[in-house]
Design goal:
Blueprint: H1 10-20, E1 23-26, H2 31-39, E2 45-47, H3 49-55, H4 66-80, E3 84-87, H5 95-108, E4 112-116, H6 135-148, E5 155-160, H7 163-181, E6 185-188, H8 194-203, E7 209-211, H9 223-229, E8 233-236, H10 239-258, H11 271-277
């Protein structure tokens, strides 16, 4: 799953993918899911700060630490071998903190991170009541991160949550300011429909990221639609977690009601399938994929 013969910077691999077309990055909330993303044939994966907080038992309000996120990045990057795009929320502080964030994310193996212009404590991008920092303050963070990344290949994505506060005009103005400051990709959060995605892409030329999250403000659009609208990356931040947790709740309900999970066995991943996903053969010494060149 991991090609150890080449040590190409993951950001360079992501940039090459961007040249080829729209990159689809399903969310992986742990290393096992990340291996499944790779085995399913996707070329990149995404780490959501919200999903990472949720699996730790917390809401998405900026409670995660830098250490928790970099550990998750390292595990998912190692397990999948894919370029990883990782959520950095508001950068864990001011510009100096954001500089440390970009360095630590890159050291952990990420190909890219995205940082947002919300006021801390942040809220999920599809909830009301958000506030944003002054555009110049966010631009300063982006510029500092761009200047201090370890490699020019590392990809910096600037997210703006201004749509609900400043409308499309403010969103576009911020996006173009952040591009000038050094952002490689812009992530306009909370757009509602294809018309808004099209308007944004036309007014802010360059790489853009679309967030296709369920139960939010964005209507469901397919990858081909996003590609036609001009989007270079489409992320599915919580989809796999939502599917998994729905199955967990169904299983728990069946066990509580029936005193057995026999009726659910057909819906389970088999032991054989799990071992294949882990590239593990019982009785044979296992080695980490990165050790196999």
């Amino acid at each position: 799953m991991v090609d150890c013969s080449e040590r190409v910077h993951p950001g360079a691999r992501l940039r090459a993918l961007l040249q080829q077309g729209t990159v689809v990055a399903p969310g992986a909330f742990n290393a096992l899911v990340a291996r499944a993303v790779a085995r399913a044939g996707f070329s990149a994966c995404y780490i959501s700060g919200g999903a990472t907080a949720n699996v730790g038992g917390y809401p998405d309000i900026g409670l995660l630490t830098l250490t928790e996120m970099t550990r998750t990045i390292r595990e998912i990057s190692d397990a999948s071998g894919l370029p990883v795009i990782a959520d950095a929320d508001t950068g864990f502080g001011e510009a100096a903190d954001a500089v440390r964030t970009v360095v630590e994310y890159e050291r952990a193996g990420a190909a890219a991170l995205h940082i947002e212009d919300q006021v801390f404590p942040k809220r999920c991008g599809h909830l009301d009541g958000k506030e944003v920092v002054p555009a110049a303050a966010m631009a300063d963070k982006v510029a500092a991160m761009a200047a201090h990344r370890l490699s020019k290949d590392f990809v910096i994505v600037a997210r703006t949550d201004a749509k609900a506060i400043e409308g499309m005009e403010g969103t576009i103005r911020r996006a173009n300011l952040y591009r000038e400051a050094g952002a490689d990709v812009i992530f306009p959060e909370g757009l509602a429909n294809a018309a808004e995605f099209r308007e944004f892409a036309q007014a802010s030329p360059g790489y853009s990221l679309a967030n296709m999250t369920e139960f939010g403000k964005t209507e469901h659009l397919g990858v081909e639609e996003f590609s036609a609208l001009g989007y270079s990356i489409v992320i599915y931040p919580l989809s796999m977690m939502r599917l998994a947790m729905h199955a967990v709740e169904e299983g728990l309900a069946a066990l509580k009601q029936n005193g057995s999970l026999e009726s659910m066995v057909g819906q389970m991943q088999t032991r054989k399938d799990l071992y294949e996903l882990l590239n593990y053969t019982p009785g044979v010494e296992w080695s980490h994929p990165r050790d196999r060149s």
